[in-house]
Write a structure and sequence with these properties.
Elements: E1 9-13, H1 19-27, E2 32-36, H2 40-44, H3 48-51, H4 57-71, H5 82-88, H6 94-108, E3 113-117, H7 125-131, E4 137-141, H8 144-155, H9 159-176, E5 181-184, H10 185-190, H11 192-202, H12 214-218, H13 249-258, H14 260-265, H15 285-296, H16 300-329
Parallel strand pairs: 1-3, 1-4, 2-3, 4-5
């Protein structure tokens, strides 16, 4: 199987930090495929205990079937049957299912190795590093002022929620900074060739100039590119760096004070003088629900993906509850 001898690599970090751009660049390499937005860890890791021991065939089959249900939402991945997936399985474990998913994806695209890009996987980066000690982890960060502006415009987030999300990613990075490869969005778009070459070397691959012509391939894909990702239809440029200057002084002040520790650590210069750091409580559940609703909006594809995930979680919890109930009365 393609990619069987190569460990997967991970692209993660703060939202709206160039993870999609970087994925498109590396995916244009003749030997590399990048599976985008699997959300494997946040979707399945919290529910994993409800499946039981994956060493038992029935539990493993149930878990693989749910993973395949999510895979079928991908337009550029022909999901195998459950039996085909199990035949290709590298190990009957949470990590084994993940690796097999990536290997099958690489094989379908004629590549020999595969990585995965989900920004939110930063919340699980410690576990990823522990379970995949040979896997390179590429961690992207971006000036919080530009990142927050982009989150508000593209994801419908409010100021407090976006600041909280940036800080969560920075804190994840801070805990593992010596074990991951940091890329600042600004550095990448200023010197794309140099940084792309460095990343290829990190992955043990030769640099190919064609990776920076990724947009030629993206213009030919059959499915529509989401509006928030349309920048990948053109070459890398630095025009979005510093766009935060269009925000109000009040918003910039809130971001700089709310993200002061991370800005200093990542060498982002304050525009309004050194602020007094402001610790913000994470958004409440109601606020998170409202933000998700704004993100889903009237977009059918987003609601479809969300419903698939909710359905799986509800089904797994219901099966777990039924099993527990039977155990008490048996």
């Amino acid at each position: 199987m393609a990619g069987r001898s190569y460990p997967p690599f991970f692209i993660l970090g703060v939202s709206r930090s160039g993870t999609t751009l970087l994925s498109a660049v590396l995916d244009s390499h003749s030997r590399i495929a990048v599976y985008t937005e699997s959300h494997y860890y946040p979707l399945f890791r919290p529910q994993l205990h409800r499946y039981g021991d994956l060493g038992r065939p029935a539990n493993l089959r149930r878990f693989v079937s749910d993973v395949l249900e999510v895979i079928r939402l991908k337009r550029n991945f022909n999901a195998p049957t459950t039996d085909e997936f199990l035949d290709a399985l590298t190990a009957p474990s949470f990590e084994g299912v993940f690796v097999t998913m990536l290997q099958l994806y690489a094989e379908q695209h004629g590549k020999v190795r595969c990585g995965e890009k989900t920004p939110g996987h930063h919340a699980y980066v410690r576990e990823i590093l522990q379970k995949f000690p040979q896997s390179p982890v590429i961690f992207l960060m971006r000036d919080p002022r530009d990142a927050v502006l982009s989150m508000r415009e593209s994801l419908g987030m409010n100021l407090k929620g976006a600041i909280s999300q940036w800080n969560a990613a920075f804190e994840s990075y801070q805990r593992v900074s010596g074990s991951v490869h940091l890329i600042r969005y600004e550095d990448f778009v200023e010197k794309p060739e140099e940084n792309s070459s460095t990343l290829c070397a990190l992955l043990g691959e030769s640099y190919e100039p064609a990776v920076l012509r990724f947009y030629e391939r993206m213009r030919q894909v059959s499915h529509p590119i989401p509006h928030q990702h349309r920048r990948i239809l053109g070459p890398v440029d630095a025009t979005l760096v510093g766009r935060f200057s269009q925000m109000s002084r009040h918003d910039i002040e809130w971001i700089e004070s709310g993200c002061a520790e991370g800005m200093e650590a990542l060498d982002y210069q304050f525009s309004l003088g050194t602020p007094r750091p402001r610790r913000m409580a994470p958004p409440g559940r109601l606020n998170l629900i409202l933000e998700r609703l704004r993100f889903y909006g009237l977009k059918r594809s987003r609601w479809r993906r969300a419903w698939t995930r909710w359905k799986i979680v509800l089904r797994v919890r219901a099966a777990d509850l039924l099993s527990s109930t039977r155990g008490r009365f048996s």
